[in-house]
Design goal:
The protein is built from 6 helices and 5 strands; from the N terminus they run H-E-H-E-H-E-H-E-E-H-H. The N and C termini lie far apart (100 Å). The protein folds into 2 domains: 126 residues, Alpha-Beta Plaits (2-Layer Sandwich); 44 residues. It is an alpha+beta fold. A hairpin with a 2-residue loop joins strand 4 and strand 5. Helix 1 crosses helix 3, helix 2 packs antiparallel against helix 4 and helix 4 crosses helix 5. Strands 2-3-1-4-5 form a 5-stranded antiparallel sheet, sandwiched between helices. The mean pLDDT is 83.
Length: 171
Amino acid sequence: MKAEKTEMIAALLEKVNASPFLLVVDYTGLTVDKFDELRKRLRGAGAELHVYKNTLVRKASEQAGYPEKLASVLSGQSAFVTGEKDVCAAAKVMKTFAKEFQKPEVKGGVLDGQYLEPSGVQALADLPSREILLAKLLGTLQAPASTLVRLLNEPAASLARVLQAKADKAA
């Protein structure tokens, strides 16, 4: 039995280390159909939902170097969300699903080795999508360059307008 637990902890540790985030969710009262629907939606967002024994997750999180505060939320019926993509997408799925079905409840999580309170996960869910943030960043980065081009172009454009006005007046 001990060898099986060691193997399960090793597999869980591999999954935890491959993911930049881990969300702990209380799924008490969630039916199997709704649980499967949540899994399907998370899969679409590049995340996975798994159920492990809390003691196994506690040991794997200790080995991964996660904050000790995570152990305080590992009680009751807990499911774990991991993924290799955007944590905001997974948080949005959890938020919309909880709003739709009043379950599950996010207990906490870890993002890049830092503990996240449930309110932190909520804040991540409220962020715009990654694509929108990148577009805003690109617009911010391009604004000074386009302003510079307009400023450099203005003297020549002014001269051209003056010459055109002079030519129109002469004709």
